[in-house]
Structures are given as C-alpha cells and as structure tokens.
Amino acid sequence: MSTLTKPNHIGRKISRIRELRDMKQEALAQALGTNQQAVSAMENSETIDDDKLKEVAKALGVTVEAIKNFSEEGVINYFNTIYDNDFSNSNGAIQSNNCSFNPLDKMMELVDENRKLYERLLEAEKEKNGYLERLFGEK
C-alpha cells in the first residue's frame, strides 16, 4: 500500500505540509538540527514519536494537531473557501473587479505632480543661490 493511500501516514503528512510551505528537506533538516537524509527517512515513516513531532510542527510553523489532522481534501476545501469568499457574492455569482479609473491617467497625474515638485525644488535652489551670491557680493 502506498503512502498516498494510508490516511494516517504521519511522514507523508509532514512531507505535504513542508511542500505546501515551499520548504525543501534541507531547510527542514537545518531547522531540526539534522540532515536531509534523516528528514527523508522521517517522511517515509508511518509513525513518529510525539517529541519529534512537536519539533517538526514548530519547524514547519504549524501545530501538532494540524499535522495529525492534515488531509488533501481539507487543503482543497480551504482554498476553495478562500476563492469563494474573494470572488463571489452571497448568491454565489462571480464578481468582476473592474477599475473605476484608467491606470494610465493616474500614472500621468503622478508624472505631472512629480514635475511640479521638481520645478518647486529648482526654484528654491535658484533662490538659495541668489541669496548666497548677494551674501558673498556684499563682502
């Protein structure tokens, strides 16, 4: 029987959580103070002692219960729930997010504002230079 079909294969659950966290075995090994081969062996184990499981949970940033109760279906349901909440209204209809402004117009406003600020800075520098010239001219 493969590790994919065993529902309580704790090593496979650790492996999937690690993968979902975009963490390599080497990174988990470093966090646990061991080597990649030990992590590989652990991920192929059906059971792991509770103390080691606590260390792994901490390194992965999850709880021991999250590892024990992990399921692929739960992950899919979690992401489906997020998708449904973000993109559909209470009737289940997909909402579109249309901009109420033209992004290029906004960018051109920023360019114009930047130009005005530059001109003000340039004018202030000219005034400062004129003041310094008058100051040195008097001496």
Explain what you see.
The mean pLDDT is 82. This protein is elongated. It has two domains: 10-87, lambda repressor-like DNA-binding domains (434 Repressor (Amino-terminal Domain), Orthogonal Bundle), CATH 1.10.260; 99-139. It has helices at residues 10-20, 25-32, 36-43, 50-60, 64-68, 72-87, 103-138. 68% of the residues lie in helices and 0% in strands. The chain has 139 residues and is mainly alpha-helical.
**Termini, distance in Å?**
96 Å
CATH 4th-level superfamily of the largest domain:
lambda repressor-like DNA-binding domains
Determine the mean pLDDT.
82
What structural class do the secondary elements suggest?
Answer: mainly alpha
User: How does the major sheet shape up?
Assistant: none
Query: What is the succession of H and E elements?
Result: HHHHHHH
| Topology, number of strands | 0
Supply Rg: 30 Å
Unreliable stretches covering 5 or more consecutive residues: none
Give the domain tally: 2
CATH topology of the largest domain: 434 Repressor (Amino-terminal Domain)
User: Percent range for helical residues?
Assistant: 55-70%
**Rough outline:** elongated
**Broad CATH class of the largest domain:** Mainly Alpha
Count of individual helical segments:
7
The CATH level-2 architecture of the largest domain is identified as Orthogonal Bundle
Write a concise keyword list for the protein shown above:
139 residues, mainly alpha, 2 domains, 68% helix, DNA binding, Lambda_DNA-bd_dom_sf
Provide a quick synopsis of the model.
Keywords: Coiled coil, DNA-binding. The protein is an all-alpha fold and 139 residues long.
